[in-house]
Amino acid sequence: MSNIVMETRIRLARNLKKYPFPIRLNTAKKEEVANKIIDAVKHSNSPLADELDVIWIRDLSEAERIALVERHLASPEFISESNGRALILSKDRTMSIMLNEEDHIRLQILEKGFELQKAYDIADKLDTLLDENLEFAFDESLGYLTQCPTNLGTGMRASVMLHLPALKASKAVSRIAGNLQKLGLTIRGAFGEGTEPKGAVYQLSNQVTLGISEKAAIENLKNIAEQLVSQELAAQKRMTESAQTQDKILRSLGVLRYAKLISCDEAMELLSNVRFGISSGIITDITTDSIDSMLEKIQPAVIMVENGDISPEERDVIRAKMVNRL
């Protein structure tokens, strides 16, 4: 499963009972809400309380903001505005809380691999601790109140990041996507709605939050993810019997190891091919964890945060040196 399921995420949307939604707040009130939440997190009984960084979006450069999205720690919408917005991050970056995005709180837990229950248990404990100190907006009939009606109810979006190169190559994903909608799930690019699945990385998540329990939503997502993994593995087995597929995988590794310049899009495509080779047993001296780590490190803004305001060509040189180490 870990060769196909790259990462698990649980995200909870919450709002404070005594404040309007962020869209109705001025900057001063947004900062008041943010500071109230920051204080509640820091003074909670969670072991994470002493292991947190608080980042105000207004203090970040454009590259630093984009890097947060590339690392899946914040959404594109969140970094699009800075007034009154802050991010709470755990030191190990497995927990992030976006303050004053669409809702007052977007609590996110990230776990490597297929760890839906573990990620939910952590999110649920933090949610309970925060509710004790903050008092969330909640209705007995509707559940947790959110700015967007599609998040009403549990306010939970559970998702798994899947590497589906064989299903993408066979053009099966578009057909699968239509069927998933009938089951209350959606599949899309790794960076959220409207994004392209670069490197054959897809995000599978629940759409329904009203009239369903967290447990039922997670169980449904788990079952469908397992079915997709089975379909992907079967498709990989068929494809890797072809010399053409084997050649494509090994040529990709050769380019990565010897390139002097490489763009982000090309690197992601080639890394996806190599990851396919690892999953199918063609490549045995590289781990999927090393590929997954590389997929984050080669992103444009991540490179700029580490190396300063450099040109695209300079980024391509640095990226090539990184992937040469595989």
Fold blueprint:
Blueprint: E1 5-14, H1 27-42, E2 52-56, H2 62-70, H3 76-79, E3 86-90, E4 95-99, E5 105-112, H4 116-134, E6 138-139, E7 143-144, E8 156-163, H5 165-169, H6 173-182, E9 185-189, E10 201-206, H7 214-239, H8 243-258, H9 264-279, H10 288-297, H11 300-307, H12 312-323
Antiparallel strand pairs: 1-5, 1-8, 2-3, 3-4, 4-5, 6-7, 8-10, 9-10
Helix pairs in contact: 1-4, 2-11, 8-9, 9-10
In short:
This protein is an alpha+beta fold and about 325 residues long.
Low-confidence residue ranges: none
- The rounded Rg comes to 21 Å
Largest sheet: 8 strands, antiparallel
Number of strands: 10
Q: What count of helical segments does DSSP give? A: 12
How much of the sequence is in beta strands?
15-25%
**Mean pLDDT across every amino acid position:** 93
Helix-residue proportion: 40-55%
Distance between termini?
23 Å
What is the SS-derived class? alpha+beta
Form type: globular
Topology order in helix (H) and strand (E) letters: EHEHHEEEHEEEHHEEHHHHHH
Strand order of the largest sheet: 2-3-4-5-1-8-10-9
Description:
The structure is a single chain. The chain has helices at residues 27-42, 62-70, 76-79, 116-134, 165-169, 173-182, 214-239, 243-258, 264-279, 288-297, 300-307, 312-323; strands at residues 5-14, 52-56, 86-90, 95-99, 105-112, 138-139, 143-144, 156-163, 185-189, 201-206. It has 326 residues and is of the alpha+beta class. The chain has an 8-stranded antiparallel beta sheet, with helices on one face. A hairpin with a 4-residue loop joins strand 3 and strand 4. The two termini are 23 Å apart. The model has no long low-confidence stretch (mean pLDDT 93).
